[in-house]
Amino acid sequence: MKYFGFLIVFIISLVLAVALSVNFGQIPSLGYLMDPYHGFWQNAYSEDELAEEELSVTGLSAPVKVIYDNHLIPHIYAQNEADLMMAQGYVTAKHRLWQMEFQTRAAAGRISEIIGSAALDFDRMQRRKGLGYGAEMGLQFLEENNSATLDLITAYTKGVNQYIDQLDMSKTPVEYKILDYRPEHWTNYKTVLLLKYMADMLVGDKDIEFTNLRKQLGETMVNRLFPDRPASGDPVIEADHQWDFEPLDVVRPDSIDYPDLSLLIEPIPSPEPGVGSNNWAVSGSKTKSGRPILANDPHLGLNLPSLWYAIQLSTPDFTVKGASLPGALGVISGFNENIAWGVTNATRDVRDWYAIEFKDDNRLEYLYNDQWIQSSIRVETIQIKGDVPHQDTVIYTHYGPVVYDKSFHPNSQKLNFALKWTAHEGSNEQGTFLGLNRAKNHADYLSALDHFTAPAQNFVFASKNGDIAMKVQGKFPLKWPEQGKYLMDGNNPLFEWGDYIPFDQNPATLNPDRGFVSSANQYSVGESYPYYIFDNSFEDYRNRRINDRLREMENITLEDMKALQFDDYDLHAAEALPPMINYLTQDTTMILGEHNEALLGILRKWDFYADPDAKGPVIFDIWWGHFKDSVWKWLGSEGGAVVYPDDFTTTSIMKKSPQDSVFDLASTPEIKEDAVDHLVKSFEETAIAWEALKEEKGENISWSAYKNTTIQHLVPNFKSFSRAGIFTGGGRSIINATSERHGASWRMLVELGNDVKAFGIYPGGQSGNPGSKFYDNFIETWAEGEYVDFSFRAESSTADALFTTTLTPTD
């Protein structure tokens, strides 16, 4: 009952917050919420206090044992895979039911059902992007092509629904009570939809921004400031890799006419900055034990309940352990007795926009190849709590849905753009993870990846027999150079995607001579790769820091890998700050006062490690932000949505060409500005901002206090269920990529051998119940760069067992 008092205080403040909040419309039913027998009071428990020795589950073929360790991590032992999946569904729902349902409601555009009309715009956007349509296509694909996967999804669904049917109202998750709605049954569709939701989280595009930049700057300048192939080098697959396939022909049309539109004002929503990941594997030739070691830390939004749910799944045929996604089957990032694997985002442009010309306002026909062809209509009925349903008519072209029109963001200039996206196509990503869970070798790993379409991912691999590998996997359109970089003409067939790159021609490597593989969201390949690759957000710093460290390291241990995952070294600052200081202090017009000298003193002494109690990274972050804005703000001067050149490009021009024309501002024709002018101006702004910051937060402002890492509840208004002010270092472009709201959502290390050694941690806890001691108990361990022993547990082991439950079959 540790959290009982906390919940009383929370609920009083929360009821007031909900009553006053425009975000949540209807005030919850206080009778349900405050009911002494069924209300929030009944959620003030930890799972070990209500442990059941036996639970009845209809449909199991044999008993299933579930052993919880002292962190509430379940270890599930079943006699076959169907029982295992049913048990996983049951156990996951027991601890994360509200999260599972809320996330799939969000994906489906169904939040208005529980909070009212305030969510209508969000719901319409989700549906107009076609997430639900993509899930329908995915489920149809499984029904027609992958009955084995579908059967296991069905078993999982049955397990979830068994738990829901047995759920006593008093133990219904507190979020249902606050928002005044009830759990609904799980479906196979929701599992498919969840994986489409992940694709949406990890894909973005800047077609509109680049269209504006092309119109403003011209194509030559765009290519200079935004090169397709980043100059930082060091790609995912080693640059000198030799390809052993005959590429398909790709021909760029002789003449391309892009749509001639005025500057487009609003950007298309994209993932939040900071979303990324690291993974690597080192061969036994570089480790002290002679065994391969694999590491993975996906960087995503930091939320409570956590995105991940740790679990071990065992049958007589295999045992797998790692991080699962509540609502999806199996382990997503993990290991079994023979292999380990992990994922990072491959940042490939697989989402394009086409300008559509309709025949008339009915939009029943649109122009394609100078002929009118028929569109289709999809009516989305959105239920709204406390209001009548909203009927939203979405037009679909052969490219995909028309997201914006006169009824949705009618003042936007993005009218009648159709979205083409690989996530709309049928696929079996769930089959990939089920295959990896059972895989025994590299061939099994490749076979499992053949099911994977979206989002594009870098899959790292290591095996007990000593292999290490990396593959960039996804369904990638066969594009000619620059296709999809800008808004395209929907009438012109030359802009159509061609075929797809064959899966066996996706970039991949096995046992490279350098003794390691790694990825950190950088460009995938060297110049010898024959296909065009583009994205707007390739990473330039984390990957080079990782590769530099792995090249120089020998006799590597798991402790070394722990230190590398938590590495706080800011390579960007190390490359940018010395010339910034040098230019600043060489400027004879700059008069440094006492405060400025103090700031420079802190920066000069900084060792470029973004540790939580350091001041240097605070000052550098402020200065760099002001400098970059000073240099590039002219790009948005004509009113269109744009994107700035990245930090690497900005730093390179500043260092190598301080007199470059990009620094000269058109707004001051009588003066020719250079990089030094911007550095002086931005440093003066930094000094002012630093003094204001000290007044607000005190003299000893630290990096940790400044960035205020927050692990936020999935409903942002529920601040009492969130954790702010986490004392930890790191930051964007740093291996420990912990920023304000993003970071390592899961850290895993695995050493393969006869006895697998593994460690893992994530910023949250196993329980979805804020009243449980297991809700956020991992956060401090995670923030300090420490881990939980994640090695396998044998069914016979009783060490540190919290409790054991047997799921018993009933008719």
UniProtKB/TrEMBL annotation:
Q: Which InterPro entries match?
A: Ntn_hydrolases_N, Pen/GL7ACA/AHL_acylase, Penicillin_amidase_A-knob, Penicillin_amidase_dom1, Penicillin_amidase_N_B-knob, S45
Against Gene3D superfamilies, the record matches this protein to: 1.10.1400.10, 2.30.120.10, Glutamine Phosphoribosylpyrophosphate, subunit 1, domain 1, Penicillin Amidohydrolase, domain 1
Do you know which CDD domains this protein is assigned to? Answer: Ntn_PGA_like
**Cofactor: how bound:** Binds 1 Ca(2+) ion per dimer.
Alphabetized Pfam families for the sequence = Penicil_amidase
Question: Where does the chain bind Ca(2+)?
Answer: D349, D352
An annotated Gene Ontology molecular function: metal ion binding
Required cofactor names:
Ca(2+)
List the active-site residues: S277 (nucleophile)
Q: Which family does it belong to?
A: Belongs to the peptidase S45 family.
User: Under which name does UniProt file this protein?
Assistant: Penicillin acylase family protein
Q: Which organism is it from?
A: Echinicola strongylocentroti
List the taxonomic lineage. Bacteria, Pseudomonadati, Bacteroidota, Cytophagia, Cytophagales
